Structures are given as structure tokens and as C-alpha cells.
Amino acid sequence: LRPLAAAMASAAQSAEDDEPRGSSDDGEGDVDEGIEDTPSDQTSPPARSLAATAPSRVPISLKPLAQNWSVGAHSSEVFCVRFSSDSTLVAAGLGSGVVRVYQAQTGRLSYQLTTSDKGLPSTAMRFRPASASTKTRNVLLTANADGCIQHWHVTSGKCLHTIVEPDNQVFAIDYKADGSKFATAGKDYTVRIYDEATKTKVADLSSGFGKKHAGHSNRVFSLRFHPTDEHMLLSAGWDNTIQMWDLRTEGSVRSIFGPHICGDSVDISGNDIVSGSWRPTEQLQLWDYRSGELIANVPWLDSSEPCLLYAAQFSASGKHIAAGGSGANEVRLFSRSSLEPVGVVNLSKGVYGVDFSTDSRALAIAAGDLSVRVVAVPA
Fold first, then answer.
1. DSSP characters over 97-130
2. pLDDT for 379
3. Backbone angles phi, psi at 15, to 5 degrees
């Protein structure tokens, strides 16, 4: 039903029959020391039947976003994309397990990392925040469908550390704003919190026997730490919920019912949450972080067919929302204030990931046409 999620799961299926591996180090030592199921059919009702909806008029035309550069001829689909903290690099994760890192200004290939010796998909990436209390920069955290989470020093090409979650397929990761912790989630419904300095697990966030709080009942595809509240983490996936976790109690303190998340398509800015659902209607929505109530359905107008979303994100400036997916095979840029579309990128295959540069002037796009591209964001 969900091509991207199904492709990740299918490609990783062979890994399940292999002997599980425990957490391990790659033997290289940490560069920090030496360098300065099937988806649920049950649908829960939305928080409220219908909230304020953006203007319903069909725009006369959508202006194509100017392309800065595009690199194709990859060996497999591009599943995820990420700017570095200083926006000088763009990392692209491929279905083959390879991560290619490009110069953000020119698109020149600078580095290549192999995150899976089994050729399984690279499913999620995050650069460690520059504010992290370490002298080492350009550290990339990668997740793979074989259950591996790896820290890479991009410019030296060294794998600093490897964590393996046995019998899991990791589909989502995220860092706290200060880089002190990171979270992982995927096939087994559990959100795990790790300490960045020690690389050890410090919490399991889940529902189940003996727990009084809610949790996930299906695969998790999106994670987002709150940018200003260090105790809060959002997660979402196939079970049609967004869970809001308080790390102090290790429990879900609030749930949003409705969004059907199949990719990195949940983000938060201020008190607004954006969700991008893989469905033909009401796919792009805004929610109130404080109450969990629906603020607006953002209409996907003037399209020959519906766009089922895999990706959604606020710009760092807060002025724009970018979202993209399959069906219509496009990315749209929306004004945050008016919720009107202000630009579009049309592709021949589905869009699997988007990421704004830190200055909000560029948008990177991961797609099924074997290409990664960066487009300009209008002021």
C-alpha cells in the first residue's frame, strides 16, 4: 500500500533471518578522541471533525522553484536527504545503503560512505548539531533497514561507532537541539533514547503491559525533538497517531489521532505541528502542540492527481512549509502565514524526503528518480 515504506521493509526482510548482532564498535575508535508488519486498518477519529481550513480557491498557476543543481545516475532511489549544520554539505541516503555527500553550493560529490554491507536501504540521517559539546564537526548519524545506527566523521570517512538494534529495522532518527541525546524508532514500535557522549541507551518509550500511558501499535517513521523544550519528543507512524513523549516520565503525555505517517513528515515550529500523511485527502495538516487539536487542513489544489505525502517540514525561518510525495510526484512550497502554495517542483517519480538549509534559502529533495536536487527558496 505504501511504496516507500513497503520498499524499505521488503529490502530489509532478508536481514531478519541473519544472526542478530549486538551493539558494537567498529574498532576504529571514536574520532572525537583524536580529531579537533502490515499497516493497521483501524483508523482513529481526528482530534476534531474539521478545523479552520486554508483558502479553497484553485491557484491560476504554480511557479516552478528555480533549481540550483541536480545529480542523477544513482544506482538506486534516494530515500533521505539532509543539509549539514552549516549548510555547506548535502547528504543523500540511497536504497543501496550508500550515503553520498555533496557540496551544497555546486552539487560536487565530495564523500561516499557505505552504511550497510548487505546493501540494505539507508533510511534516515541527521548531522550532529553544531552546538554539541565536542570539537569534532561534520558528524553524521545514519540509520539503516538492517537495524544499524552509525556515527560517521564525514570528512575522514571513518565510522566512529556502530549500534545495532537486533530484530529491528530503523526508519527514523533525530537529535536533541543541543546534540546531547538522539532517538531512534522503526519496525518494533519502540522509541529508544541514547546518550550521545557514551552511545548507550538511556530509555525505551513504548506502551504495553504494566504501563499506564499510550504508545505506538505499529511501525514508526518520524521522530522530532522539540526545538526549545528539551524534555519533549514527537513520534508518528502507521498507527495513525502522533505521540508526544515527556522524557522525564518516559511516557506519552498527549496523542494526536489521524495523521497516517509513512516517512519523515512530522515537524514542529513554535506551537504548530505539521504532519504529512500518505493518503489522497487531508494529507497536509497543522496541529496545535499545546492542545493536540487540528488547526487547519492545507488544501493540495490544482493537481492532476492526489499527492500522498512522505515528507513535510517547516523552514528554519518559519516562513515556509515544504511537502512532497507520490501520486502527483511533486514537492510544493507553502507560505506559513497564508497556507497558499508559492512554488512547485514536478518529478517523474515520487518524493521521499525534503530538508531546508539552515538559512532557509535552499531546499534539498530526495526522490525515486535516482536523483538528489537542491532548489532555491524565494524570500
1. SEEEEEETTT--EEEEEE--TT---EEEEEEPPT
2. 87
3. -70, -25
- Phi, psi at residue 101, to the nearest 5°? -120, 125
pLDDT per residue as tens digits for the range 357-377: 999 999 999 999 999 999 999
What residue type is 34 in one-letter code?
Answer: G
CA dihedral 191, 192, 193, 196 (to 10 degrees): -130
Q: What's the Cα-to-Cα distance from 118 to each of 168, 171, 283, 353, rounded to whole Å?
A: 15, 16, 34, 23
Q: Is the Cβ–Cβ distance between 223 and 176 less than 8 Å?
A: no
- C-alpha cell recorded at residue 310: 512522505
> Is residue 14 classed as helix, strand or coil in its secondary structure?
helix
Distances, alpha carbon 155 to alpha carbons 107, 109, 116, 180, 359, in Å: 16, 12, 19, 22, 22
Answer yes or no: are the C-beta atoms of 54 and 337 closer than 8 Å: no
- Burial of 135 per CB tally in 10 Å (0-12, 13-18, 19+): exposed
> What integer best gives the mean pLDDT of the chain?
87
Classified as helix, coil or strand, 31 is: helix
pLDDT of 171 above 80: yes
Helix (H) or strand (E) run with residue 344 in it: strand 341-346
- For 66, the grid coordinates are 528555480
CA distance 32 to 54: 48
* Burial of residue 191, with CB atoms counted within 10 A of its CB: 0-12 exposed, 13-18 middle, 19 or more buried: buried
Largest CA-CA distance found in the chain, in angstroms, rounded: 59
Closest CA to 258 of 280, 272, 242, 274: 242
| Alpha carbon distance 186, 112 (integer Å) | 25
- Write down the pTM of the prediction: 0.86
Element (H, E) at 5: helix 3-12
The C-alpha atoms of residue 172 and residue 45 are separated, in whole angstroms, by: 25
Q: 72 is written with which cell numbers? A: 542523477
- The set of cell numbers assigned to 318 is 518559519
Amino acid at 175: Y
